[in-house]
Structure formats: structure tokens, C-alpha cells
Amino acid sequence: MKISVIIVTHNRKEDLINSIPHYLNQTYPNKEIIVVDNASTDGTKEEIPKLFPQVKYYWLPENFDIRSINLGVYWSDGDIIWRCDSDSYPLTPDTFEKVVEIFRKHPEIHIIATQEVEKDTFELRWDWYPYPVDKYNVPDEGYPANGFVGTGAAIRRVVFDTIGGFSGFGYEEFEFSARAIIAGFEVRYFPNIRVVHEASPRARNRVHRWLCSYEQYTRFSWKFFPFWRALGRTFCILAFQFVEGLYRRFSPLVLLEGFLLVLTTMLKTRRTERTVAPPEKLRKITMGKSFFAYQFKLYKHLLQIKINREKRSRR
After folding, report:
1. Lower Cβ count inside 10 Å, N or C end of the chain?
2. What is the residue range of 218's domain?
3. 207 vs 74, 92, 201, 203, CA distance in Å?
4. Whole-model pTM above 0.90?
5. Beta strand pairing status for 143-144 and 31-38?
6. Is the domain of 175 the same as that of 249?
7. pLDDT tens over the chain, length 315 residues
8. Are residues 175 and 210 in the same domain?
9. Domain end: 141, 167, 197, which one?
């Protein structure tokens, strides 16, 4: 089995210089590294091919956001696609060996979800899995999952060949996983396979990310859920969106833009993309958890991060 590492980047030259060696140093030999550059202007185009000639580098004249992963998959020839960020990498050099062993022993598994950890402490960065599980004594077949973190996941190529690629930035891992589950593929969570996420401090467009996330939450709901459940999720989306917008001190015009975006996305998705999942698939897609429960868990996590930062700043 060949592993194709797909890294999509935009103006993150230093992150790539740090992360690429971790992939080159993976002890599993049958691999390739593909960097798809979304129109970087920070010297990435000049430096990365020179520093890492063994890496396949593609520069795009326009920023296609996360959808550029699909181009990387098209240009790759691996049996396994390793989806990651430019500021993330496997914790240990034998990670790819473990991934290949799982896929070889379990042909019924198609997507391996991993666990993010902090760079220095190796503590869990985002405990995204909805249920408490033993993260050290992991069953041979892992745990059932309905998604994965974008900083590190292994996906069999057959999944892309069957359902297509990622369709937009924001919640894209769970939308992709939902389509995979509906198509009959299996997603499993292996918290003992860990990836370091350095969370690059480079400034991010908070408004853009906020709008994209809630657009995709809405799209996800109206694409896969029956009418009344989708409507209920939409009320939750609007409430959480408003609270987060206030917390981030967005202007009233931005809050209004978000509100209108949710409504227009609801109508557009209902008209053009609606493919309600069968009840048995819907149970797997949600893992029995409501949108409120997922968002509450996320907000609790973000609040804990803020508290920890304030504690550190007082020391």
C-alpha cells in the first residue's frame, strides 16, 4: 500500500519547513508527499521546491480553500490518502506503519480518525469524540466514528473514487464522512494514533471562518436530515452563531450577514442538494448526539482554553 500525504497550504512557508521533515522521516517507505499551494505570496513557491526536491509541489494561481485537497488526490497515486494541515504532523515516526497495518488487518475499515495533541505537552488538543473511551487501550478495530479531525486522517482512495472529494471549507470532515457512511464505508477512531497540531499563530480571518462554519453547519443539516430535525438544528445553529458572534465582538452588520447566510443556505441546500439519509445511516452520522450536544462540547473546550491561557499569563 502506498500512502499519499496531501498538504494544502496558503502563506505558511515556515509551517511547511517544520512539518515536511516529519513526513519524510516516517519509517514506512512507500509514500509520497504532495503540497498544493493556494496562491501563496510569502516565498513558499521559491523555498519549498528548493528545500524539499523529493516533494511534489503544485502552485495554484488562485486560492481554492480546502477543495484543493481534491486536486492533490487527483495528482497522487497512493492507495491511502493522508489528509492533514500544513501545521500538523504524525507524533511518531512509525505512524504510517500503524495505519497500513490497520487497513491490512481490517478491510472493512475505510477511514481512520486520529487524535490531535499539543506540541509540547502531548495533551489532547481537542477531545472531539462524543463519548468517553479508553484512549490508550484501544480495541484492535478502534471505535465507531462519524468524522475525523482535519489535522490527520487516513482515507482509502476508494472512498474518494466513490463519493468524490471535499466540498467546501468548514465542517468538511464530517460532511465528507456522512457521505462516506451513506455510501457504506466505515469510519473508525483510533485515539492511540496521534498527530501534533502546532496551531500556527499566523493571523486568521475570524469573520470569514465564522461565516464558513455556520454556512456548512446549515448545509449539512438540510442536506442529510428530515425536515423537522433540520429545522430544529437550524434554530440551534442561529442561537450558537449569535452567541459566538457576540463573544467575538462582531459588528451588528456581520451578525446580520451571518443570520441571512444561514437562511439562504437553508433554502439553497433544500432546493439543490437534499439527500436525506436513511434512519439507520442517520444514527451512524450523529452517533446519537444532537447538534446542541456537539456545540456545547466545543464551546466548553474553547472556554477551557481561554481559562488556561489566562492562568498561564498570571504566572
Report:
1. C
2. 206-314
3. 31, 35, 17, 12
4. yes
5. unpaired
6. no
7. 999 999 999 999 999 999 999 999 999 999 999 999 999 999 999 999 999 999 999 999 998 888 899 999 999 999 999 999 999 999 999 999 999 999 999 999 999 999 999 887 777 777 889 999 999 999 999 999 999 999 999 999 999 999 999 988 888 999 999 999 999 999 999 999 999 998 765 656 889 889 999 999 999 999 999 999 999 999 999 999 999 999 889 999 999 999 999 999 999 999 999 999 999 999 999 999 888 888 887 777 767 766 766 766 666
8. no
9. 197
